[in-house]
Write a structure and sequence with these properties.
By secondary structure, the protein is of the alpha/beta class. The chain has 14 helices and 17 strands. The strands form four sheets. Strands 4, 5, 8, 9, 10, 11, 12, 13, 14 and 15 form a ten-stranded mixed sheet that branches. It has a three-stranded antiparallel sheet with strand order 1-2-3. Helix 3 crosses helix 11 (about 290-305), helix 5 (about 130-140) packs parallel to helix 7 (about 190-200) and helix 8 packs parallel to helix 9 (about 245-255). The protein is globular, with a radius of gyration of 20 Å. The termini are far apart. The site of (2S,3R,4R)-2,3,4,5-tetrahydroxy-N-oxo-pentanamide (EZ4) has 11 residues, from loops.
């Protein structure tokens, strides 16, 4: 089998998505997600202008060799644009192999290790009371795990508090919006939020919280400690992780489990965190972490250090990534939890998919390959629209810290 054509497709059914479609001389094709929120066209160009010509004529079954060729051959290694592009090609190749052999991708990865993939959704509210109510709606839908975020009184708009109920899109059209942030105001509200949620719903539900890289290490240590009575499943992105050593300070001060890694590009972003047992969950994703091939390396490294996975799965990761993550999650031994924010009806129309949700668990389905398709005739109705993630400033206008 040979690769004959590589297409880079851009559509915006509610938000921008970049998709690669790799065709072969035997008629089988595969698709991969290449979406990098706010920098979509950079990845599209990387793929179209630099990667596509190198793939024509290659054997798509040589997934590992093609991964090494794109990673090592570029000379310029790592980085979110490069690793998202490699991730997209990798997903498409696993899709091709699954379809050609007539098996779902999880069978190629060693088979199912579990019956389903436990997921968490986002309960949001502008106030603590609204967020507490939103948790109840997720529990009614069957979720076993819920991330809870509330607006901070005195701040106009808080990152992570979604606008939609079931999907979550922090990017906005036009140029980047600017939000204000105050750690003091934030820290004063979060423990009360979780006290209220536990009071209302008891101990059975897994609760998660995302600090979106906003805190210093000592602030994160204090927040983790104050949240200990509410037994969180995890506290995510407590501090920016460029400086992995910073997690030592957080760890010294709290037993609240820690998760980080949704913006990591390769395992090299996490080696110290893992070696020193500074985190409990690695959030690297298939799309931004170099595909299924590299995520297997990352998960194996994590497993050696008692760390489980918790793949990023917000709405800006397309249904192709969601499917790839589910095949991966189902197969590995050290899976922890999967983030699951639903897509808009328009997005689901562009990307029909085989995965299904029931009773708090997702299953990738048994369609050959990844089990997701791309409908050009629908996608073409939604042209690209420039959009950015917001910029965050402290109340005095500085950007120090994150
Ligand atoms: O900020 O997907 O845990 N989820 C998150 C997400 C990310 C966005 C970035 O594009 O933090 O909401
Ligand atoms: Co996050």
């Amino acid at each position: 089998m040979k690769i004959t054509d590589v297409e880079v497709l851009v559509t915006s059914p509610g938000r921008n998505f970049v998709t690669i479609r790799i065709r072969t001389d035997e008629g089988v094709y595969g698709i991969g997600d290449a979406t990098l929120n706010g920098r979509e066209l950079a990845v599209a160009s990387y793929l179209r202008d630099h990667v596509a010509p190198c793939l024509i004529g290659r054997n798509p079954f040589q997934i590992e060799d093609i991964w090494q060729y794109l990673y090592r051959g570029a000379y310029w290694r790592r980085g979110p644009v490069t690793m998202t592009a490699i991730g997209a090609v990798d997903m498409a190749l696993w899709d091709i192999k699954g379809k050609a052999l007539n098996v779902p991708v999880y069978e190629l990865l060693g088979g199912a290790s579990r019956n389903g993939v436990m997921v968490y959704g986002h309960a949001n509210g502008q106030s603590v009371g609204e967020a507490v109510e939103a948790v109840g709606r997720y529990l009614d839908m069957g979720y076993k795990a819920v991330r809870v975020q509330a607006g901070v009184p005195g701040l106009k708009g808080t990152y992570g508090v979604g606008r939609g109920e079931l999907f979550y899109e922090p990017a906005g059209e036009g140029l980047p919006a600017e939000d204000a942030w105050s750690t003091e105001k934030y820290l004063a509200t979060v423990p009360e939020l979780f006290a209220r949620v536990r009071e209302e719903y008891g101990r059975d539900v897994h609760l998660l919280h995302d600090a979106h890289h906003r805190l210093t290490p000592i602030e994160a240590g204090r927040l983790g400690r104050e949240l200990e009575p509410y037994a969180l499943f995890w506290l995510e992105d407590a501090v920016p992780a460029e400086q992995q050593e910073a997690f030592r300070i957080v760890r010294q001060h709290t037993t609240t489990p820690l998760a980080v890694g949704e913006i990591f590009s390769t395992i090299h972003d996490a080696t110290l965190l893992l070696r020193e047992n500074l985190i409990d969950y690695l959030r690297m994703t298939v799309v931004h972490g170099g595909g299924i091939t590299h995520l297997r390396t990352a998960a194996a490294y994590a497993a050696v250090h008692h760390v489980r996975t918790g793949c990023h799965g917000a709405t800006d990761l397309s249904p192709v990534t969601m499917a790839a993550a589910l095949h991966f999650d189902l197969s590995i031994p050290n899976f922890g939890i999967q983030e699951y924010m639903r897509h808009t009806a328009e997005t689901d129309e562009v990307f029909p998919h085989a995965y299904t949700f029931a009773d708090g668990y997702l299953h990738p389905g048994d369609a050959p390959g990844l089990g997701v398709d791309y409908r050009d005739e629908v996608a073409e109705r939604f042209p690209y629209r420039r959009a950015y993630l917001p910029v965050s400033r402290l109340e005095d206008g500085t950007m120090f810290n994150w």
